Amino acid sequence: MVLPTAREAILKKNNGPRNPWGEDIERVHFRTGTIGKTLNVKIFVPGRYEPPVNFTRHPSDSLETLKVTTGVKNDVFSFAVHRESTGGCIFDTSIGGLIFSDKFIQLATYLPSEAMYGLGENVHPTLKHDFTGYRTWALFARDEFPVSSTLRTINLYGMHAFYLMLEPDGNAHGVFILNSNAQEFTTAPGPALIYRTIGGNLDLYFFPGPTSEEVIQQYHAFIGTPTLPAYWAFGFQLSRYGYKDLNEMMEKVDRNINAGIPLETTVADIEYMDRYKDFTVGKHWKDLPKYIRWLQREGRRAILIWDPAIQVDDAAFERALKMDARFIEWERYDQVMRSIQDQYPLVKDTKIMLGVVWPDRHIAFPDFLDENTRKWWIEEFIRFWKEVPFDGIWIDMNEPANFGTNEEKPWYFENPDHPNIPTLHCPVEGPDSSWDMPPYKTHNVWLYGKDAILATKTLCMLALQANDTQRFYNVKGLYGLHEAEVTLAAQYAATNRRGAVVSRSTFASAGRYAGHWLGDNSANWEDLQTSVIGAQEFNMFGIPYVGSDICGFFGDATEELCLRWQQMGAFHTFMRNHNAKGQAPQDPAKWPSVAEAAKKATLFRYHYLPYLYSVFFVVSMNGGTVIRPVFFEFWMDKETHNLGHQFLWGSSMMIAPVLHKGATTVDAYLPDDVWYSLYDHKYGHLVSPGYSTFPAPWTSLIPVFVRGGSILPRQKPEMTTTASRKNPFELLIAPHYSEGGYGSADGFLFWDDGETIIHSFASHNYFEWSFKFYCDTQHATLFIRTDRHAEDLKIPTLDTLEIFNYKYKPNLDSFTLNGAKITVKHSTTPTDRQSCTFKISKRRMIDISTAHTYTLSWTHATA
């Protein structure tokens, strides 16, 4: 893609040192251009591999402009990026080290500060990167579970070469490198950053901000804004791997419902299948369709798992071949492992590359870059949904993961549930080995020992996709993205509802199609802590529907750890309790204390789901973060720059979870603003900014605060979101008072039917309201404006207002709505009086579905 504003030059190889990782390319192109205010700098060779991604590439908007300068010193070329308004340099490659060869490319830069965030998918112990030493982070999609108990810079399931940086003056910018090959980043003192990749080009995009949230919105304008899941997808999900049959799953669901825990969705892992084969149901799960229909009648939902691996002697594979679907293949027939291939008549005369995953027999991986494959995949889901009416889709093992590559005795030889079938072997000698054994293997190989290759845990890098036009070496990192894209299309086609798709492997723009869980974590306190950071990072990456396996996947969770994880997990957008086969049960109803904590935390979540859903709605339209780092809102406060263990919902709600064993308090930091307690401890009271210690016993919510100047929409919670959505709306008003006693607050609410597919927000049927509240010594007024009106959409009325820190005595006989007198009910408690909380209600007080504006006013009694 050549930008209309592009400027281009040719760079010629100098007489510098010899490149130890291949012959340098003699002539490379240097091009700059813009997409709106997004700056593109590209160093490339025409005709080289470009990632096949479907980014929206919308022009960004900003008051700021970035400019590029170039220079040559001592026969070395460099470029720098400056912020035009301040002259500050945000990227400076005069540090040297630019190398461009076929399978080794390097670029290094000085950075303006150490306040760098993002790059992944890795486990980061802190939100802000550490530049005190040299540390190299690997990026390459891999079936690798996170480990937080020790520092490991290994690559995990996805690839997101994006970082955000705070500059010394508080301005923020972002940088994205569009490359899907195995790559790595080294953070170094200086501060400096060194980037290396082993294919493609250097294709950099700079986003000028100047605020952090604007940077993220500009990045999302380029890659595509996130999909909005169905409303029910924000409910609590219960899962585990290892149910022996449907009855056991039903028993666990029942005991949690009976414990009074709001439970929205039941999730089935691979055991529901017939011997782990996609699009089948096992004999111990034959009543699964009947059970799902019962759940749906009760207002609940079901999500099922699928892996991409298709057993090559199964009916689904045969249907694929009849539709001319393609699978990942060897490059030549002489590379095919005939001893395996000849066992299966359907693939005997093909180049399809066979691997091993969960099914008993060998499998093949669909090529989602092929149009016929995409059609077949969609048809399979339509066909299966007619038998098993699932509500959402969970896609796993899509790095893609393959068992035992190049191993003589893979792990499953010791597994009684898996036959000892031979593994895939990739060439590690001779000319065909150059793809798995490139000159520079990157930390994606070196971190895994001397026998590791790029194909470890996956397919051979020499494989081909897209009708033999794309090398797996280049496109492997995109596999989960392409599967997510077609799977969302399958979700829509099969169910005719929005639903939700959750994917393990992701790449930039995957949030347009799916959410993400943070992988197969462990039941320890360190993984609880890093999951708080991981969720914030994936919001930056454009995947705001994100969460961790609550209580941990591997290992046996303790009562205390599970209780604290249920409390924290209630504030992640994707909320699921899930653990591994063979581990002790950890559903919250296992322990009375955890059941009570989960009930309280989930009811709080459901109470404020209208606010959370509205924030997500805005982010889906405009880009941005739902789970927001604190420094996004308070960037001039350096105390927030590494405050990774607290986070915000949008701009208005602060969460400070309990993350340490034995803790019954939380040491939290509230930036200099007006804050009110929103949890058990002094609910409604003003809270002083700065560092404080807040009580957090097991029986309480974790500390939650609302920011002054905010209006939060909410509803009385029920056991399901379906029931909650029928309750009247409420508004929590948290005023910010200026000198002279003038109080104000504002907020918003977006509301649709929660499940209709959104093809375009321009044509989507939804309501949008804005709220503004003002009060002074004489009177108070709530203005409600309908900014968008939906057709034929039944909505609840607004029945309740709760106002914190209300400094005046209202005249209860003075209430008027649009000039007409109304009678309201005033309720107060001793706690309300202590916190100056004022609460009024009236059945069907305001029908906000009819008029364009509403004005609720009242006066204050004189002393």
From TrEMBL:
Recorded family membership: Belongs to the glycosyl hydrolase 31 family.
Molecular-function annotations in GO: alpha-1,4-glucosidase activity; carbohydrate binding
Lineage, broadest ranks: Eukaryota, Metazoa, Ecdysozoa, Nematoda, Chromadorea
Glycoside hydrolase family 31 TIM barrel domain: residues covered: 226-614
InterPro entries found in the cross-reference section: Gal_mutarotase_sf_dom (IPR011013), GH (IPR017853), Glyco_hydro_31_AS (IPR030458), Glyco_hydro_31_C (IPR048395), Glyco_hydro_31_TIM (IPR000322), Glyco_hydro_b (IPR013780)
Protein's organism: Ancylostoma caninum (Dog hookworm)
Annotated ranges, domain Glycosyl hydrolase family 31 C-terminal: 623-712
Domain of life: Eukaryota
Signal peptide residue numbers: none
SUPFAM superfamilies cross-referenced by the UniProt entry: (Trans)glycosidases (SSF51445), Galactose mutarotase-like (SSF74650), Glycosyl hydrolase domain (SSF51011)
Pfam families: Glyco_hydro_31_2nd, Glyco_hydro_31_3rd
PANTHER family: ALPHA-GLUCOSIDASE, P-TYPE DOMAIN-CONTAINING PROTEIN
GO biological process: carbohydrate metabolic process
Keywords: Glycoprotein, Glycosidase, Hydrolase
Protein name: Glycosyl hydrolase, family 31
Record carries keyword Lipoprotein: no
